[in-house]
Specification:
- The protein is α/β, with parallel strands linked by helices.
- The protein has a domain of 312 residues: TIM Barrel (Alpha-Beta Barrel), CATH 3.20.20.
- The protein contains 14 helices and 17 strands.
- The strands form 2 sheets. Strands 1, 2, 3, 4, 5, 14, 15, 16 and 17 form a 9-stranded mixed sheet that branches. It has an 8-stranded parallel sheet with strand order 6-7-8-9-10-11-12-13.
- Strand 11, helix 8 and strand 12 form a beta-alpha-beta unit.
- The longest helix is centred in the middle third of the chain and has 18 residues.
- The chain is globular, with a radius of gyration of 21 Å.
- The two termini are 18 Å apart.
- Bound molecules: zinc ion (ZN).
- The site of zinc ion has 5 residues, from loops.
- Pathway: Nitrogen metabolism; (S)-allantoin degradation; allantoate from (S)-allantoin: step 1/1.
Length: 496
């Protein structure tokens, strides 16, 4: 049996969420089947001596713009960018045209995008004003989770009122879907925006001025309160302020459970970026002052931040050049640059490689319940892996990026650490910064919840599953997936 590997990745430093170990990986039928030293030869051999072997990154926050906005990006270009950047799983947001608010719409989108996917993917449905009755059907159709926009963003997606939010949260809890939230107070940011406009402000920083920390803090407090009452598993997308993080700590002390995401952009850029890049760095929530950036890094060090994502949000080059802040679009690309930029932070000593794996692979996969196959390189995991040269110095070159409009504030950003190759289920999908091969990405759906007698779906078996720790009686929140910090992380399945 041990001579029967399709592929052996030999001599690399394999990184899990808690250690980095020099070992070989044996791969058969797209899965990791052996790990150790001196594995017998495989039909294909890759010499990874001197390289770092990471699980493929899991980016739970991308906007690939299909259907309806393919002038900005499409599933092919966006997933090729992911492959080249070492991201082997993406979860795509539902604020497309039309928004994904019904099971029928979900199924249509799936049929449209699946043949174009170069990496594995999940699709979110929307938690909107009028679709609480659709949520069970969205889950049955294979939604990875739900996205709730409390604050205005790209697309025509009116923010639901608190009654609709609570109804949607209850339906999500019953269906076992994670609810990810864009937590900004819509009425407040709109009012402040009108006041700034009336005062004649048109500069890029006016965007920051109309979304002060209170816009986030209020929404975070409200959604944690509502989600806890509804019993829903809550994830806060792109938390951006020191005050917002303080509020999360306070709510956790009161017993509320949730996961918190920060963006690469909020970790690497501060408000001086408005002077250099203008409206290109308009982002919702905004790029913040350096004190907030420092607080997010502290939150990572303290274990208060659970994961990192990109909010890859492409627009056309013309749209990104808009000079009127009120007409400019929010967001910019990021899925292809995430790993080189974070490896650079590893080189600078702000993260360890196991931290990177925990924040970008392990915890995202566990939170959305795909960690039986994704987010680690233990026995039985999909052989989604990234070979990284940790010492290669370079810079971000927009000319090499795969997005339709490679406009990025990171152009020319010096990097240390480069993606040499990306494998999806044991097959090469990118090499030295170029996506290769035909699209072979598959749809991912969350594993059914273990236990939980308040689940509406009757076809779910109870009992121990994967790494979810015992959480019977706590409702649909999945064990330690929703607990803060590093404590209680399950032991990765990497064998010696
Ligand atoms: Zn987003």
């Amino acid at each position: 049996m041990t001579t029967d590997f399709d592929l052996v990745i030999r001599g690399g430093t394999v990184v899990s969420a808690d250690r980095a170990t020099r070992q070989d990986l044996g791969i058969r039928a797209g899965q990791v089947v052996a790990a150790g030293t001196g594995l017998s030869p495989g039909r294909r051999e890759v010499d990874a001596t001197g390289l770092v072997v990471l699980p493929g990154l899991v980016d739970v926050h991308v906007h690939l713009r299909e259907p309806g906005m393919t002038r900005k990006e499409d599933f092919r270009s966006g997933t090729r960018a992911a492959a080249a950047g070492g991201v082997t799983t993406v979860v795509d947001m539902p604020n497309t045209l039309p928004p994904v608010a019904t099971a029928a719409g979900f199924t249509e989108k799936l049929a449209l995008v699946a043949p174009k996917a170069h990496v594995d993917f999940g699709l979110y449905g929307m938690l909107g004003q009028d679709n609480a009755d659709e949520i069970a059907a969205l889950a049955a159709a294979g939604a990875m989770g739900l996205k709730l926009f409390m604050g205005q963003t790209t697309g025509d997606n009116p923010c639901p009122d608190d009654g609709a939010i609570h109804a949607g949260l209850r339906a999500a809890a019953a269906a076992g879907l994670v609810v990810g939230v864009h937590a900004e107070n819509d009425a407040l940011l709109r009012r402040l925006g009108r006041e700034l406009r009336a005062s004649g402000r048109t500069d890029p920083r006016a965007h920051l001025a109309c979304r002060p920390a209170v816009v986030e803090v209020e929404a975070v407090t409200r959604i944690i309160t509502l989600a806890s009452d509804a019993g829903a598993q809550l994830h806060i997308h792109h938390l951006s302020t020191a005050a917002g993080l303080d509020r999360v700590r306070l709510m956790r002390m009161l017993g509320h459970r949730l996961t918190v995401e920060v963006l690469v952009a909020h970790l690497l850029l501060d408000d001086s970026a408005y002077d250099r890049h203008g409206n290109l760095v308009k982002l919702n929530p905004p790029i913040r002052p350096a004190t907030d950036v420092a607080a997010l890094w502290q939150g990572i060090a303290a274990g208060d931040v659970d994961l990192i994502a990109t909010d890859h949000a492409p627009h056309t080059a013309d749209e990104q050049a808009e000079t009127d802040v009120w007409a400019a679009h929010g967001g910019f690309i990021g899925v292809e640059t995430m790993l080189p930029l974070l490896l650079t932070e590893v080189h600078r000593g702000r993260l360890s490689l196991p931290d990177l794996v925990r924040l970008c692979c392990h915890t995202p996969a566990r939170t959305w319940r795909i960690d039986d196959r994704k987010g680690h390189l233990g026995i039985g995991a999909d052989a989604d892996l990234v070979l990284v040269d940790p010492t290669a110095a370079g810079e971000v070159d927009p000319g090499h990026l795969h997005s339709r409009h490679p406009v990025t504030p990171y152009a020319g950003w010096p990097t240390v650490g480069a993606v040499r190759a990306t494998y999806l289920r044991g097959e090469l999908i990118a090499e030295d910064g170029r996506a290769v091969g035909d699209p072979t990405g598959r749809q991912l759906t969350p594993r059914p919840l273990p236990g939980g007698d308040d689940l509406a779906r009757s076809d779910q078996e109870t009992g121990p599953t994967g790494t979810a720790s015992g959480s019977a009686g706590t409702g649909p929140r999945t064990g330690d997936a929703a607990s803060p910090g590093r404590a209680g992380l399950p032991t990765p399945l990497v064998s010696a």
